[in-house]
Known about the structure:
The chain is an alpha/beta fold and about 425 residues long. It has helices at about 50-60, 70-80, 90-100, 115-130, 160-170, 170-175, 205-215, 240-245, 270-285, 285-310, 320-325, 355-375, 410-415; strands at about 35-40, 65-70, 135, 155-160, 180-190, 195-200, 225, 230, 255-260, 335-340, 390-395, 400. Strand 10, helix 12 and strand 11 (about 390-395) form a beta-alpha-beta unit.
Amino acid sequence: xRKETEQTPPSGRKTAGAEPAKTATKPxxxxxRPRVALVLQGGGALGAYQAGVYQALHEHELTxxxxxxxxxxxxxxxxxxGNPRETRIAxxxxxxxxxxxxxxxxLRQVPDTLRPLATRVTTLDTFLRGAPGFFRPRTFxxxxxxxxxxxxxxxxxxxxxxxxxxxxxxxxxxxxxxxGMRMTVSAVKVTCGTLVNFDSQxxxxxxxxxxxxxxxxxxxxxxxxxxxxxxxxxxYSNTPLETVLNDEPRTNLLCMMVDLWHADGPEPRTLEEVQxxxxxVTFASRSQRxxxxxxxxYRLRRAAHALYKRLPRELLxxxxxxxxxxxxxxxxxxxxxxxxxGRDWNMASKDVNFARGSxxxxxxxxxxxxxxGIALSQGCPFSESDTGIVVHDLPSGExxxxxxxxxxxxxxxxxxx
Length: 417
């Protein structure tokens, strides 16, 4: 089980606006860099942790080739993919500085017993007044009174300010241009519950796609894209790892997967503990299910390759050779799972805690875990093997080969799923 890290102020440490001490080393210039994907969960205010992880990758020459996000992960993905390398950190920082609330007290100057109270008051302020540059309560809201409203207004909060923030901080021409990195965000069709991926390789991406991915009801209203209404992709799958595993053609890949919710946790005893555990269970990663499905396909691909090699060459057509080449059964995916370890005093509203001190603390934790993830990923072998996937876990630091049969799943894999 993960160590329960309570949120403490960054006293004596550097905040998101400064560079914490580095513990990872940059790879040698002549090292061939693997293709890198960054997978970002939904999690509201917890997403500041993702920004810290990206900063570590950015500073150590592991800038992703592809970023995949849901909800707040989609917003962070747009800030990363929608800006040139030299301005990405500044744009991420500007967004999180914009949406953060001033702390009720300087948490470094108050005893531990007052810190949860100060954070709860700040969080209550977010519920009442929203987050600047992100969302605001709808005034005279008929929806809140149970009356029918237009579908695009069926929510407690308006996200018009987010649209303006995205237009200001994301260069969508750059994102959709040839020089931009690939970005994929997911959303759910309201009318049928189908998960849809908006991929910059397949279509131009605009603010509406990012907002649709983060439209979590009933707080936020669905967003209409090409005539269809969409809600938050996290309602269907909050960790879009499956998008990476299903990508074709298959290539060797280093996947940095950032988890914001805890699948494991103590037995709840109070109403708030029940609500906290409910959220964690609902939005925690289901990565092991996706990995198991990928392994089944991987074994079939390898079996097909083995049979192919045993066939007489005169029986093979050019189409046969092309099909087998596209199967990609000799590739390996290394997944580094970086898990946000903060418990936020077991607050059910931790994803709405935009207190500035909390945002800075999460960013710093993400940066430090990002450094550990980089160190863990260095030297990953990308050669033909029977495994297909190798999983490296943080914060435990354990590395294990994904099993060839579900019955052989290790305990480390089970509790991190």
